[in-house]
Amino acid sequence: MRLTIERGALLKALGHVQSVVERRNTIPILSNVLIEARDGSVTFAATDLDIEIVDGAEADVERQGAITVPAHLLYEIVRKLPDGSQVRLDLSSDDPRVTITAGRGRYHLPVLAAGDFPAMSSGSFDSRFVLERAALARLIDRTRFAISTEETRYYLNGVYLHSASGDSGPALRAVATDGHRLALADYPQPAGATAVKGVIIPRKTVQELRRLLDDAADEVEIAVSDAKIQFSFGRTTLTSKLIDGTFPDYTRVIPRGNSRIMTVRNDEFSRAVDRVATMAAERSRSIKLSLSDGKVVLAVNSPETGAATEEVEASYGSDAMDIGFNAKYLLDIAGQIGSGEAQFEFADAASPTLVRDGNDPNALFVLMPLRV
Fold it and tell me: Where does the DNA polymerase III beta sliding clamp N-terminal domain start and stop, copy by copy (predicted)?
């Protein structure tokens, strides 16, 4: 194999694939990136056996071939090369290493046979549909913060993607919950997505996909089967196993008919929560909201760290009440709403609270209260 590629194109492709490679591996081939050179192009692939990312770039290929080299080591070498460098990769039959040449620098990396590299992207998919890049990014951003990290409830360790009946009609819905908070986002159902009855996309896949979307084209093709999901855009393809489990019936925890409504300027409210929560005990991070006509008072009273209160103007016309929340969870939800209005719908101090974004009717959040 012998090829020459511009350093920027090589760095971008390697940056897309190498992050999926675990730093410590008991299987040596999984520490490597697969490089396949064909006429006029080269592809790079990396996998951890659960996720596979493939990306490509144009290259001047003198001799076709395929080989695997250490992913992180190759990426670090290329990252430190001067901008605009022409990088030459050369593997000859009389040297068991690949030689990387750029300017006056020469680097020799160990290789493993391409035939030993595991492939994930093969296989058939039951349904395919196309989604706008911005729409997919929104579904992820609105929900991923609520993914559970508790491994015993593995079926909550991802985003649940499925077709649903939303308030505005058929929708592609993303849901995540950790039992303390729930996030839901809808998008008008694209053609072909009706068959998506429900798949759980693992947390690591969600994080890798969101990172790749920053460089993606305007549209993403999504293919789904019972065991895998695949996202394709431009030269990049991410294929992932799905979580084999049953997502709970989340609709049962979404409150209906909460009659106590509070509306606040979200940016002012979130900054006040952040300031008052500075005094909260690390263990519970609890903060009390005291609701009364036209205002909400945020309070923390900790025997360990002290006390703090702050008043925020709010639209609230129901009976006065006190309710407590985990400050971090409250800030996580506020962080999804931005600078518009946030609407909180309460029932009582012991029941789930529904939070809505005043600028986005197709998203909602549920937050469980704490005793304060």
Answer: 1-120
Distance of CA 307 to the CA centre of its chain: 36
CA distances (Å), origin 156, targets 49, 84, 147: 20, 45, 7
Start and end residues for every CATH 3.10.150.10 domain found in the chain: 2-116, 127-252, 260-367
**Model confidence over 294-338: pLDDT tens digits?**
999 999 988 777 889 999 999 999 999 999 999 999 999 999 998
Predicted confidence (pLDDT) per residue in 205-251, tens digit: 999 999 999 988 889 999 999 899 999 998 999 999 999 999 999 99
The hierarchical CATH code for the domain 2-116 is 3.10.150.10
Paired strand residues for 260: 346
Strand 181-188, strand 306-313: pairing: unpaired
Q: Supply the pTM of this predicted model.
A: 0.91
Hey, CA dihedral for 12, 17, 22, 24, is it positive or negative? negative
The angle, 0 to 180 degrees and rounded to 10, between the axes of the packed helices 133-143 and 203-213 is 140
Taking alpha carbons only, the member of 199, 246, 255 closest to residue 225 is 199
